[in-house]
């Protein structure tokens, strides 16, 4: 747990120290603009999908029979919002992971972890596959659980989806330059629950107005610190273990 809070505090410190205003703003602006354009172009198709969804969950006929059109319109607009926001968040996180992460890793590593040797256990192909997997499951979580919003249970979905997305998307990229393949697997396996905890903690920031503009970069920085801290600890433990037989002899 201490590693989670340490990584979160270090990420906040880096947001203040680093001159990274440009990489905070442009990913989310690109994502907002992209989905506004897509939403405008495919508005009719999406409206048809929404109507089909309402029919599937049994409220389509009820909405069509309402005398007050604003109720039906409000519910439909709420659904648009529930789809639009996670798509913007997902796209911003992907842009950050693919295009911004290398620069952030260099900034953090050169200042806080200069002694860590770079093993380059990750790859661009691995990052792309990991990003596609993360986004695919993220979308699936939202689509499958949309009916839960009708019964009030949907409030937990954004946090669970954000926790999954964050830990799945950033745990690999945070270690890809410095750790070997084996080290990446070891750290991810031994810290599975902590990674989910960090994913949830950073995911909460995504739902706080104004602060959510900083969320993608903050999340990336937190996972970089978490990963490199654990890599430093793992290598120290391996070095100690390798020296024990010689000392005992």
Automatic annotation (TrEMBL):
Keywords, comma-separated and alphabetical? Membrane, Transmembrane, Transmembrane helix
Q: Where in the cell is it found?
A: Membrane
Q: Superkingdom of this entry's organism?
A: Bacteria
Q: What residues form the membrane-spanning segments? A: 20-42, 78-108, 120-143, 149-172, 193-211
> Per the record, a Pfam family?
EI24
Q: Does the keyword Transferase apply?
A: no
Q: How does it sit in the membrane?
A: Multi-pass membrane protein
Name the chain's protein: EI24 domain-containing protein
Instruction: Say which species the protein is native to.
Output: Nitrosomonas oligotropha
Classification lineage: Bacteria, Pseudomonadati, Pseudomonadota, Betaproteobacteria, Nitrosomonadales
């Amino acid at each position: 747990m201490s590693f989670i809070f340490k990584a979160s505090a270090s990420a906040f410190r880096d947001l203040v120290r680093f001159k990274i205003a440009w990489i905070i703003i442009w990913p989310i602006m690109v994502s907002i603009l992209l989905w506004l354009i897509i939403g405008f172009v495919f508005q009719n198709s999406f409206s048809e999908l929404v109507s089909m969804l309402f029919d599937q969950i049994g409220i389509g006929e009820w909405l069509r029979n309402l005398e007050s059109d604003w109720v039906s319109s409000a519910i439909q607009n709420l659904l648009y919002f529930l789809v639009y926001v996670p798509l913007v968040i997902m796209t911003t996180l992907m842009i950050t992971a693919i295009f911004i992460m290398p620069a952030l890793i260099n900034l953090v590593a050169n200042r806080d972890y200069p002694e860590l040797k770079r093993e380059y256990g990750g790859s661009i192909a691995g990052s792309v596959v990991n990003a596609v997997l993360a986004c695919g499951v993220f979308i699936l979580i939202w689509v499958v659980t949309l009916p839960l919003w009708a019964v009030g249970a949907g409030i937990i979905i954004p946090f669970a989806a954000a926790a999954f997305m964050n830990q799945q998307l950033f745990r690999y990229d945070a270690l890809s330059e410095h750790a070997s393949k084996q080290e990446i697997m070891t750290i991810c396996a031994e810290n599975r629950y902590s990674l989910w905890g960090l994913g949830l903690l950073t995911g909460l920031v995504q739902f706080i107005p104004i602060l959510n503009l900083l969320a993608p970069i903050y999340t990336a920085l937190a996972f970089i610190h978490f990963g490199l801290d654990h890599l430093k600890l793992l290598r120290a433990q391996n070095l100690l273990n390798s020296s024990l037989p010689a000392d005992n002899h």
